[in-house]
Amino acid sequence: MRRRRLKDGVERLLAHREWLVEEPEKHQGLWSELTDGKKIHLEIGMGKGQFITTLAKDHRDVFYIGLEIKEEVILRGVEKAITLDLDNLRFLWKNAEHLDEFFAPNEVERIYLNFSDPWPKSRYAKRRLTHQRFLEKYQGVLKKNGEIHVKTDNEKFFAFSLNALRDAGYRLKNISFDYHNSGVAIPATTEYEDKFSASGMKIYRLEAIKPSI
Q1: Structural domains of the chain sorted by starting position, each given as residue range(s) with its CATH number in brackets
Q2: Among residues 8, 55, 74, 103, which one has the fewest Cβ atoms lying within 10 Å of its Cβ?
Q3: Do residues 153 and 192 lie in contact, with contact meaning Cβ atoms separated by under 8 Å?
């Protein structure tokens, strides 16, 4: 899908700088000072922010960070956070490629990957957020027994993710091939998730625990 940029998206986003961590590399190893010692949950590719703002509203004891590269998209998340007055949520307008420059080892408790771009063509496999090179970055910043939660509507991407996580030594649990019909409570959904589920599409989900060294 072609990206539709807002003409004044950057200006509108920068008008809310207090919600952005603009130089996250300066907080590497020091996030506890910003989060008041709360455990950190990070959503990579947060989209318009429905998922992460819902969690932040319902779990004030957790500090949430939403990472997104598209300014017109992260802006929507910032606007939701402002409306809800969420003091336990901040945003990184950054590329996930540099994740290991933003966080030190053992700083993040959980990573959410919701409806990530599946990059279906084989030659783009390295861009998938569950590719080995990203899994190594996650393993570097996650705490002991830290978790990755993956949700997608794309069956092939889900299969790729299952295999990649298993091969990287992550322990898999709570695997669902039809999450919305599994009978479990769903704490938060994304905008895409609501749309896909309403149309009858299956939602795939898994949890993966960081490998022991």
Answers
A1: 21-209 (3.40.50.150)
A2: 8
A3: yes
